[in-house]
Amino acid sequence: MKQFFTPLLVIITMTACPMAASSQPVLTAATAVPPAGYNVRTLNSDMVMRSAAGAGGANQSWDISSITFDQDIDTLSFRTCGTTDDCARYSGATILGARPQINGLATDYYIATSTALSWRGNKDSVGGQSFHHIYTDPLDVLRFPMSYQSMFVDTYAIFDTATNGTRNHYRKGVDTVMADGWGSLKTPSGTFANTLRIKEKGRLQDSTRDNFGNPVVTTTDYVTYSWYDPVHPYRLAQSYEFDFGSGAVGSIVSYADVPGTATGVSSISSGLLVTIAPNPAHGNVTLTFSPSLNAASVTITDMTGRTVYPGAYASATNSTITLDGQGWLPGIYAVRVEANGFSTTQKLFIQ
């Protein structure tokens, strides 16, 4: 049965290759807090018998696209914390993310402010029984603004119990959180420019009782790496690192199945260069291609994954396509273009 779902994210196999087109990202509450109505699917790997973290530092290139993600698939749906969501137990929670699990539903509760995103706890509902894991001292996942080499230390404490009062369990710990790298991240969904890597290193202590009622205390050290960008309001990937001793290291990796947002991709690396203008836009948007194309498949999705432009092949006159964006709501969109056997995805900002 699922117990403490720790918001330690998974992540990524990397090589340190310079990325001339990248720039240092900054995470804020406006970009890193999942809004109500945001849905994301995450895919998880089995144990990878190596570290998936790669190097930290500036202008890195991380790649987890070769890892096999054939294990659990979670679909998270975020919404405002309401009166029927058990939010009274998780005092101060403002937003929650719900995901199906075996024979039930799991719900994560967050406190979102302009200065931090904090984990308030989670509820497992299995076979008609609910198990509450409540942070009596919430865990700060991010503090804003967060950029390369930002750092903070946070203590936390959790108490868990079933609705009938059984299975009491207490956990406390301390986290050191640092943005230890930035660069480009490649996942099976695409390439994400301007990502920020968050390293979380901590020690937790669990206090419980065995089947005979005797107290049992265990201590665990952990390291996780999470990747974020200023476009998607949820982590792009995460790696939970395991130290087996004698130099043996493994990791469990997950990634969010969202469109890539690589920008400034050169014709040398992708065979296709697309320029969007104006950007930000309000109204018509023109896509200019290099090299010249006879036709291109253009798909535009909003941040919820909803397609606003269908992706049918459109003719390219004088290497351009003009789209009518009058009906699109203000926000960030992913523009994916496929042509001549190549593809690229870029960000479009609608005002």
Give a verbal description of the structure.
Helices cover 2% and strands 58% of the residues. With 351 residues, the chain is mostly beta strands. The chain has two domains: 14-256; 267-350, Immunoglobulins (Immunoglobulin-like, Sandwich), CATH 2.60.40.10. The chain has a twelve-stranded antiparallel barrel with strand order 3-5-6-7-8-9-11-12-13-14-15-16. It has a four-stranded antiparallel sheet with strand order 20-19-22-23, with no helix packed on it. The relative contact order is 0.17.
Give Rg in angstroms.
Answer: 22 Å
The major sheet is characterized as: 12 strands, antiparallel, barrel
Beta fraction of the residues? over 45%
Question: Any idea how many domains?
Answer: 2
- Which consecutive residue ranges, at least 5 long each, have pLDDT under 50? 1-22, 263-270
With strands numbered from the N-terminus, the spatial order across the biggest sheet is: 3-5-6-7-8-9-11-12-13-14-15-16
Counting helices, strands and paired strands, the structural category is mainly beta
> How many distinct beta strands?
23
Total count of helical runs of at least 4 residues:
2
In percent, how helical is the residue content? under 10%
Ends apart, CA distance between termini: 46 Å
Please tell me the overall pLDDT: 80
